[in-house]
Amino acid sequence: MDTTIKQLKQPGYEQLISFENAKLRLKGLIAVHSTKLGPSMGGVRMRPYQNEDEALTDVLKLSRAMTYKAAAADLPLGGGKCVLFGDPHKDKSPALFNELGKVIDSLKGAYLAAEDSGTAIEDMKAIRKTTKSVTGTNREGDPSPVTALGVFQGIATLLEVLFDMRRLEGIKVAIQGVGNVGYPLAERLFKVGAELIVCDPNEKNLERVKKNLKATAVDPKDIFKQEVDVFAPCAYGGALNKETINQLNCKIVAGAANNQFDDEEKDPTQLHEKGIWHAPDYVNNAGGIINLYCEHTNQIHTLMPRMAIIPKRLREILPVAQEKNIAPFYVANELVEKTLQN
Ligand code: NAD
C-alpha cells in the first residue's frame, strides 16, 4: 500500500488516524470514538474541507455522536467516522475507494464504513473489494424513509406524553428541508391530516411538497418564526443556535438533522427555558442506523420491532426531564453515558 497512515492521539477516543496517497487524491481521517458496545459504525463523508481543523472537528464530533446514537438505539455498535478531503463531483474514483478499503482494513474491524454525504452505494462497493468492514453494499433501498418513520413516531410520542395530544389531525408542522428524510416525513404527516409549512432552497424539492402535499412554502430564513405545534429540522446540523431559538414559536422541536444544537453546552438549556420541548436528535433520527444494522446482519425482518426503541427511549427520557426540569438532551446523554460505563 502506497498510502501513508499516521496514528494520532485524541483524548477520549480509542483511535484517530490520518492517511494520504497523493497519487490517488486520497486524504482523510478516521476516528474510532468507542467500540465498547461493538464495532464502530459511521459514514464516509467526502467534502471539500477548507482546512485540517475543519475536517478534524467534523470527524471527532460525528464519531462521538454515532456512539451515542447506537447506544440509545440498543444496537451492539460503537461510533466511528471517516472524512475525506475532496469534491465528490470531481475527486472520486474506484481506485481511491479500493485504497480506502485497505486503510479501513488496517483497523482490523474496529471501524465499519457506511455511506454518508458525498459518497454513494457504488463507493461502498469499491471499498468492499479490499475490506469486509463496510456496510450497505447490498442495499435494496434508501434508509431515509425509515429515518422519517422514526421522526414521525418521535413527534407523536412527544405530543402525547407532554401535551396529551393523541391525534395528529390538524396539527401544524414546520419542516426545514424537504429532501430524502423531510419529504417522506411530510408525506406521513399529510396522510394523518397535518398542515405543513416548509422551506428548502432546492426548487425541485419545494415544488414536489407544495404540489403533492398542499404544503405552504416560506423563505428559509422565516421558517423558525412560524407559529406551529412542531418545528422539524431536517436540513443540516447546527440549525438551533442562540438567534434561531429566540425566533421559535412552537411546542416541540423534533427532526432528523444530526447535531442540531450549535452549542451543546448552552443551546439545549436556552430552548428548554423558553418552554419548548426537544426530541434529542440522535434518539429521534436513529431509524437510519437501525435499518443499516438490520441489513448488514441480514436481520431485516427485525426492523419494525427494533424501531420501537425510538418511542420507548423518548418515554424514558421525557418524564426525567420533566421531573428534573432540564433539557431532554442532557437526560439522553446521561442515559447513554451510564450504558457506556457499565
Ligand atoms: P438531503 O440532502 O436529502 O435533504 C436536505 C434538504 O435540506 C435538501 O433538500 C436541501 O436542499 C435542504 N436545505 C439545505 N439548506 C437548507 C436551508 N438553509 N433551509 C432549508 N432547507 C435546506 O438530506 P437528508 O438525507 O434528508 O438528511 C437530512 C438531515 O438528516 C441531515 O442533517 C442528515 O445528516 C440527517 N440524517 C439523515 C438520515 C438519513 O437516513 N438520510 C439519518 C439520520 C440523520
Please give a structural write-up.
The chain starts with a strand and ends with a helix. It contains 13 helices and twelve strands. It folds into two domains: 4-63 and 77-137, 3-Layer(aba) Sandwich (Rossmann fold), CATH 3.40.50; 144-341, Rossmann fold (3-Layer(aba) Sandwich). By secondary structure, it is an alpha/beta fold. The strands form two sheets. Strands 1-2-3-5-4-6 form a six-stranded mixed sheet. The protein is globular and about 60 Å long. It has helices at 52-72, 94-105, 121-128, 144-163, 182-191, 203-213, 242-247, 267-273, 281-284, 287-296, 303-307, 309-324, 328-341; strands at residues 4-8, 15-21, 26-34, 40-47, 78-85, 111-115, 172-176, 195-199, 216-217, 230-233, 252-253, 277-278. The structure holds nicotinamide-adenine-dinucleotide (NAD).
Key features?
342 residues; alpha/beta; Rossmann fold; 42% helix; globular; binds nicotinamide-adenine-dinucleotide
Summarize the structure.
With 342 residues, this protein is α/β, with parallel strands linked by helices. 42% of the residues lie in helices and 18% in strands.
Kindly estimate the percentage of residues that lie in beta strands according to DSSP.
15-25%
Radius of gyration: 20 Å
Provide mean pLDDT, rounded: 96
Looking at the overall shape, the CATH architecture of the largest domain is: 3-Layer(aba) Sandwich
- Ranges where pLDDT stays below 50 over 5 or more residues in a row are none
CA-based shape: globular
The CATH class of the largest domain is identified as Alpha Beta
Number of helical runs?
13
The CATH topology annotation of the largest domain reads as Rossmann fold
Question: How helix-rich are the residues, as a percent range?
Answer: 40-55%
